[in-house]
Amino acid sequence: MLSSTLLYKATPLWQCAVKSATSLLPRTATPSSRTSLRRQLLVPRKTSVMATPFSTQMPTKKDTLAARPYQEYDSEINDMASYIHNYTIDSDLALDTARFVFLDTLGCGLEALRFKACTKLLGPMVEGTVVPNGTRVLGTPYQLDPVNGAFNIGAMIRWLDYNDCWLAAEWGHPSDNLGGILAVADWINRTNRAGGNLGNGKIFTVHDVLEGMIKAHEIQGCLALENSFNKVGLDHVVLVKVATAAVVSKMLGLTEAQTRDCISQAWVDGQSLRTYRHSPNTMSRKSWAAGDACQRAVNLALKVSKGEPGVPTVLSAPIWGFYDVLFQGRKFEFQRPYSSYVMENVLFKVSYPAEFHSQTAIEAAQKIYAQLKGIGKSAEDVKEITIRTHEACIRIIDKQFKAMDNFADRDHCIQYMVSVMLVFNRLEATDYTDGSEAAESPLIESLRKRIKCVEDPQFTQDYHDPSLRTIANALTVTLNDGSSLPEVKVEAPLGHKLRREEAKPEILAKYQRHLRPHYPEEKVTELVKLGLDAKRLEAMEIDQYVDLYVKDTMDWP
């Protein structure tokens, strides 16, 4: 047998090596990236035939190499870090809206505790573990480390798809970031009260948390305005991870440079695929994906706090950066600088626990239910329905003939949601569960297959128009006798900025409704009254506020 030395000398490998190396490049790599790698491989180097024998006494790279020279960060990352550390929130509208988002989001998390599919994932990784001075999880007795606390709170918030929403080139729910922000703020306060010095000893107030929410909303929302992650198969929770990592880094007392490190680590982290939101793989991971993103963000920020460096050109690096590997070689585009725009314009889910692109369709269906009742007819008299809608609705929730296999299928099917409203004059979270009255209804199953969606280009244009951002749907009902009802069109849902004042009493009523299953009426009244008093609420230290929600035992399975 030939020795490895003789084989090396006898066989010219350089051509094979170049071909092999370039074949390993991602399919998304650009021609220029491939050419660049070939040139690097073909640069002459002084080499010996025989490699120097290895010895354990040889100095290692760690011993001989100097510290890595400074490398400039991608400008996109610099901008985010600068915004986090240097921008002052001075918008009264943003702070007022953030207060309503805060209350609404906590209420949504509490409501999720009524669903076993959610609660089975909550609590410590090892049963019985209690972390001293740890994050408290609202509505539960759990006291956890901030990483697992971020998952618990984040999963609760997102479980029922009922918290706020942002619709643009990418969709998402910016209040998902509260999972990480609240977990870290609560843990820091409790630790510092016990003699610790986290975040330079700071004690966070509700106001501080609201400011963190505004900045997380802004980063997630501005990235979403012009950049579609769903079109390359990535889930929007990547933006939750990036935004939460950015905000939490400053809360931990890290420098602007370390915040750049945190943001870069969030981008380099493995990104979630959207497949769990779409047929044939629709499943419950979509409900805890945001909790997972919050958990990863906090974990990465803590690693950076211990000295872990960043990845300066994680976005732009040829071949191996985010743009080339995952974004088809395109750079991010930005519509506006970071400020407080997103919080000021965020959408509330007020009326129905339903995917946001369906909200106006369900509101229109509720009006049609009343019309049918007024003429002595019902859903049984409907022959077919046409929904004039926008492109995003069709891409996400148009599932006319898809089997409704589980909760995740039903709460992301516009035909199912409209049918439930037309049959029962309601749409509640329990209508999505297996075995529920709605899920077992033969009329709903038949009716939803007779509801078709068609895109209206004007609706799609208005959906992306920064001055409008409407989410229009229009329903036309044809009856079995051949007659048709007048089209019912709703352009902006109740939670839209154009209807914000109209929505506020309903947002508070929703919050109150979600509190009642967990607390006595006296406590509910106290919490609602506190929520309405902006000055008193914002001055309250966050751990003391969270204590108002904690329980000694779990009331739900």
TrEMBL record:
MmgE/PrpD C-terminal domain residues: 352-530
GO biological process: one example: propionate metabolic process, methylcitrate cycle
InterPro entries found in the cross-reference section: 2Me_IsoCit_deHydtase_PrpD, MmgE/PrpD_sf, MmgE/PrpD_sf_1, MmgE/PrpD_sf_2, MmgE_PrpD, MmgE_PrpD_C, MmgE_PrpD_N
GO cellular component: mitochondrion
Residue ranges annotated for the MmgE/PrpD N-terminal domain, each copy included: 79-335
Coiled coil segments of this chain: none
Entry's family note: Belongs to the PrpD family.
Molecular-function GO term, any one: 2-methylcitrate dehydratase activity
Gene name for this UniProt entry: PDH1
Keywords attached to this entry: ATP-binding, Lyase, Nucleotide-binding
Protein name in the entry: ATP-binding cassette transporter CGR1
